[in-house]
Amino acid sequence: MTSIEEQPKIKLGDYIVIQRQKYTKLQKFGNLDATATLGKELLELKGLLDQPYGATFRMCPKEELGKSHRGRQRLHALELCNELEMRNIREVLGISQSGDDNRNIKDDGDSQALKSEDIEQLRDECKESTKIIEKIVENSKTFHSKTEYSQEKYLKKKEKKYFEFVQIRQPTIRLITEMYYRQDAEKVMGIRVDTLSQMISYSGVSAFGNYLLYDSGSNGLLPAAFLNSIGADTEATMVHMHPGNIPQKQALLALNLPDEQTNRCISVNIYSVLREFYQGTEETNSEIVVAEPSTKKQKLNEVEDNGSETTKEERQSEPATKTTLQKWQIENRRAVNLMHNKFDSLVIASKEHPANLVKELLPFVKPSRPVVIFSLCKEVLMELYVELKTSSKVTNLHLTSNWLRMYQILPNRTHPEVNMNANSGYLLTGYTLG
């Protein structure tokens, strides 16, 4: 296991994961003036530069920024801590007394002697959350009458609110997948980490070969996962087809992959690239000049070598020998070349019915290669299963579903989590026939 000192360093331009207890947030460290918001707290990020990933930082209050809809907001500097030891807040506070049951405790809103203004003053004066919690416990009229279990819940709730440490973690596929799924599963089509791992495994993606992925809205999670599996400094290339004008790449950017690796992910609009594959373009035999991302409109008059100017009409009469292509056109041509050579696997994750997608993309896959189709709807995959079985284009077909149930494991109170989503979509897998 590598030590903190051996971890990669945080650099400007990196995406980072800020973790405060169980809460995680993806943030770009774009410049030294960058800040991150955690609830009511605003964090200065400049103290992270050149520090190792995995390090723990203390939130040091600097100034109050005034009130917002969330309450009083504070600005914090981040101070590196050598080590954050796991602590039992109950033992730290030396609490030993507890009640037998909670039947006589009334929630009348009058059990806490400290007012909100007093607690805010404590937060300004005390840097350690244990000191704040200690004062709150001392001024609670009902705390020592609660059962030990109720006391632990109360202490954890307060520590979560006043916890003054954050950990900076390096983004990984597993971390990003769990974060996206927990925050809003719909944005990643309900793809959970166990389903994602099966998609990668069934697809056979490796450091060699060419792979075709269609993704209609996973926030960049699928191209990020497959490109991560391909690895850096390898021979493999992936064509990422999508239905929109701009590909979703947030998760891909968050991995901070090297340029040579990201350049092997060719993102193209599916309709545009299929049209070019079947119809071609007029500029196929012309010389290509790659346009800058933000080119300005060229002047109508250009100066020749002898200093004279040609008019617009004169230039139009000259034979055109160069064609300026936008980036999406270059990507289309790269993808078309790979489509002619065919792919080593096909992965489709679509919100729409995948039947037409399979029909269009299956001819671009080599024989005896894996096909993986994901959908949130079981019925559409059942229809596709019958269709592929009848056509004899794909063999060894299997329709599967992952069912995962998370458990809270604690002494004498192990039980399933109350809020959970057991289903994470369905997978139809098979292999192409020649």
Automatic annotation (TrEMBL):
Q: Does the keyword Nucleus apply?
A: yes
List the InterPro entries hit by this protein, alphabetically: SAM-dependent_MTases_sf, TRM6
The record's region (Disordered) falls at: 294-323
Q: Where in the cell is it found?
A: Nucleus
Query: Might you name a Gene Ontology BP term for this protein?
Result: tRNA methylation
- What's the superkingdom here? Eukaryota
List the GO cellular component terms: nucleus; tRNA (m1A) methyltransferase complex
| Record carries keyword Nucleus | yes
* UniProt keyword list: Nucleus, tRNA processing
The family this protein is said to belong to = Belongs to the TRM6/GCD10 family.
Its protein name is tRNA (adenine(58)-N(1))-methyltransferase non-catalytic subunit TRM6
The organism of origin for this protein: Musca domestica (House fly)
